[in-house]
């Protein structure tokens, strides 16, 4: 009953004309961003975040979330038409989507991608709606030690966000913690890492780091190696985008698989949509009667990963909104956005901001419908974005980034900082340092330090407070388990080698 | 042969130096107070972790013969640095020249110098982009973009 009442309240918020407009704008920008290779949702949300300061927070989160899930829809267009993932999670869609396009079935592939995104995206929102409120109620009993353990658990997820090197992921996270610690320490009024600059007394604005590392860093990477690909024939007319009855029959399990796997992976912080789509593709192949056909252009190979990466969005919002734990770079930026607007994502969020939470949930239902309508007939229009030349696109991204910085802090110092972080973002890419752990450290560093210090104040310096309370002990235990995953993997590999030899 | 251009060694050394700096700074702040951890508590730990992890990276990089990351294409690093310097120049010119003029210069530079476009394409593009940004952000979205020389 609570859920229905909440949903009714949410639709009252989301259906306001202004919020409908922001939702539409969000999913439209999201689709465009998803179509354009390179410019992902974290960079876009970071660039646009400063412009949301004058908006009502509920409208702003509706728009930013629209960009987040809208990009998942758009990413499939580039994957299918160019064999290039417009968005990282669409990389698996290239396997069968592009093969379908090469066989002259681009329309069916795009249609299946849009329909599965809609079905799974909507089911993901249902999951968010049903799971978030009870989880928030459980976490209402949290105090500083539990919060510290929760943040430590969130930071341990860096293991899962690590690419090729765990050491680099951990270093990236430590740099994030360092940046988060800059400014005046609120407990002792000590200035930390301010280098004598008054501008740094308040710390470095999260937006500046995010715009630099993600947007400017991405532009510099694109300048270094502009990507080129051949665009397949874009089908025109809605009839050419509808899959056949046989396609739908072949994909019936893939729809459910994508939605369930995607949501479950989304709830786990750190796993992310790329893993969700990869896993659902693997599950689909494992249970298929024709596993050998995967990769040759079959509908299930498009439906499962596309569904999973859209359903993952709903799942990823569960830990973000109920525990304040982001699982990816995009959700970390959304968390920072909520904090910047003066809100407290966490156990009390649904209770304190019911209109915002339920408004967001309702807007996601509406947004998914908008995306289906946008993506079926307007695919040829979005595909034209792929023809925008790099010489025009890159300065525009730089310009939007600069406007974002000016909106946050109209000083040359802030501009130079963002340029510095841009160069750092490019170097991180050059040297294979993942950016997501940096954002995680940046967002969680400050609250984690605060929670630790408050906990130790409560216990008068006794560290056992962190392990003597059941919830915090369990979470710290879970963090230890997550951190030991690489060690377990290494031991397993060593054992297998020993058996082989 | 040790590949000093190996990114792991270079980045490891930079981060080790940063970690050492963090620890050195944190040593000057209170570690524990009667109320609990002081301002130096947290930085001291993550600083030390940074030193240890970056040294692991350096050792691994030194033991590795080939660079761990593929080298960039010829001349591409120069293009990146040129773009970055242009961005920095644009940031510094925003105050004196105003946003539209400095942004137009940035657009022109990227189009001509980095992508080799002719002036008949680059100049109109730069002007249209600058005006469009002014209209969308300053007039449309009410972001107060610096006006510089053209300011009221």
Give a brief rundown of this model.
The complex is a heterodimer of chains A (501) and B (152). Chain A is mainly alpha-helical and 501 residues long. Chain A contains 24 helices and 2 strands.
Write up what this structure looks like:
The complex is a heterodimer of chains A (501) and B (152). The termini of chain A are far apart. Chain A has 501 residues and is mainly α. Chain A has helices at residues 2-14, 17-35, 41-48, 57-82, 93-102, 106-138, 144-156, 158-161, 166-180, 206-224, 245-250, 252-267, 272-287, 300-323, 329-340, 349-352, 354-375, 379-384, 390-408, 412-430, 436-458, 465-468, 470-483, 485-500; strands spanning 183-184, 191-192. The longest helix of chain A is centred in the first third of the chain and has 33 residues, at 106-138. A two-stranded antiparallel ribbon of chain A has the order 1-2. Helices cover 72% and strands 1% of the residues of chain A. Chain B is mostly helical and 152 residues long. Helix content of chain B is 68%, strand content 3%. Chain B contains five helices and two strands. A two-stranded antiparallel sheet of chain B has the order 1-2. The radius of gyration of chain B is 24 Å and the shape is flat. The model of chain B has no long low-confidence stretch (mean pLDDT 86). At the A-B interface, helix 9, helix 10, helix 19, helix 20 and helix 21 of A face helix 1, strand 1, strand 2, helix 2 and helix 3 of B.
């Amino acid at each position: 009953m609570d859920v229905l009442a909440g949903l009714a309240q949410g639709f009252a918020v989301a259906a306001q004309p202004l919020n409908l407009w922001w939702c539409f704008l969000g999913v439209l920008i999201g689709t465009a961003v998803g179509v354009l290779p390179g410019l992902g949702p974290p960079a876009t949300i970071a660039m646009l975040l400063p412009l949301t300061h004058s908006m009502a927070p509920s409208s702003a989160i509706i728009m930013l979330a629209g960009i987040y899930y809208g990009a998942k829809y758009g990413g499939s267009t580039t994957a299918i038409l160019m064999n290039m993932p417009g968005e990282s999670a669409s990389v698996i869609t290239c396997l069968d989507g592009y093969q379908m396009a090469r066989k002259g079935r681009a329309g069916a592939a795009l249609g299946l991608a849009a329909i599965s995104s809609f079905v799974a995206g909507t089911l993901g929102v249902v999951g968010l709606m049903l799971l978030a409120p009870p989880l928030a109620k459980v976490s209402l009993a949290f105090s500083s030690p539990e919060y510290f353990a929760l943040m430590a658990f969130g930071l341990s997820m860096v293991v899962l966000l690590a690419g090729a090197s765990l050491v680099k992921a951990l270093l990236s996270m430590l740099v994030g913690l360092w940046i988060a610690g800059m400014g005046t320490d609120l407990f002792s009024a000590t200035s930390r890492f301010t280098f004598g600059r008054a501008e740094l007394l308040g710390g470095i604005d999260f937006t500046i780091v995010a715009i630099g590392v993600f947007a400017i860093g991405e532009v510099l990477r694109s300048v270094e190696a502009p990507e080129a690909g051949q665009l397949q024939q874009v089908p025109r007319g809605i009839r050419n985008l509808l899959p056949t009855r046989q396609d739908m029959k072949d994909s019936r399990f893939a729809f459910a698989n994508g939605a369930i796997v995607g949501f479950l992976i989304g709830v786990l912080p750190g796993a992310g949509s790329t893993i969700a789509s990869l896993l659902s593709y693997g599950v689909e192949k494992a249970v298929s009667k024709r596993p050998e056909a995967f990769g040759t252009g079959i509908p299930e190979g498009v439906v499962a990963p596309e569904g999973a990466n859209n359903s993952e969005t709903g799942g990823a919002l569960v830990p973000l909104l109920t525990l304040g734990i982001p699982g990816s770079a995009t959700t970390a930026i959304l968390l920072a956005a909520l904090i910047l607007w003066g809100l407290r994502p966490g156990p009390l969020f649904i209770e304190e901001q019911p209109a915002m939470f339920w408004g967001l949930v309702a807007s996601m239902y509406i947004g998914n419908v908008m995306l289906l309508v946008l993506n079926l007939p307007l695919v040829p229009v979005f595909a034209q974005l792929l023809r925008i030349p790099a010489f025009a696109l890159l300065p525009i991204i730089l310009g939007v980034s600069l406007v974002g910085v000016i909106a946050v802090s109209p000083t040359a110092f802030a501009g130079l900082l963002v340029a510095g972080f841009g160069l750092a973002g490019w170097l991180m890419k050059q040297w294979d340092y993942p950016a997501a752990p940096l954002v995680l450290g940046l967002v969680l560093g400050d609250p984690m330090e605060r929670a630790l210090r408050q906990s130790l104040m409560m216990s008068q310096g006794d560290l056992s407070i962190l392990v003597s309370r059941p919830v915090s002990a369990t979470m710290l235990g879970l963090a230890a388990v997550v951190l030991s995953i690489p060690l377990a993997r290494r031991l397993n590999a060593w054992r297998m080698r020993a058996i082989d030899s | 042969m040790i590949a000093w251009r190996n990114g792991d060694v270079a980045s490891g050394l930079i981060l080790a130096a940063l970690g050492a700096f963090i620890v050195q700074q944190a040593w000057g702040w209170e570690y524990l107070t009667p109320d609990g951890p002081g301002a130096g508590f947290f930085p001291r730990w993550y600083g030390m972790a940074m030193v240890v992890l970056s040294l692991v990276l350096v050792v691994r990089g030194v033991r590795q013969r080939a660079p761990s990351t593929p080298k960039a294409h010829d001349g591409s690093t120069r293009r990146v640095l040129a773009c970055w310097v242009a961005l920095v120049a644009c940031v510094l010119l925003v105050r004196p020249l105003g946003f539209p003029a400095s942004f137009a210069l940035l657009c022109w530079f990227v189009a001509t110098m980095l992508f080799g476009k002719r002036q008949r394409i680059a100049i109109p593009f730069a002007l249209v982009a600058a005006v469009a940004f002014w209209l969308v952000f300053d007039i449309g979205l009410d972001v107060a973009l610096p006006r510089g020389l053209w300011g009221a």
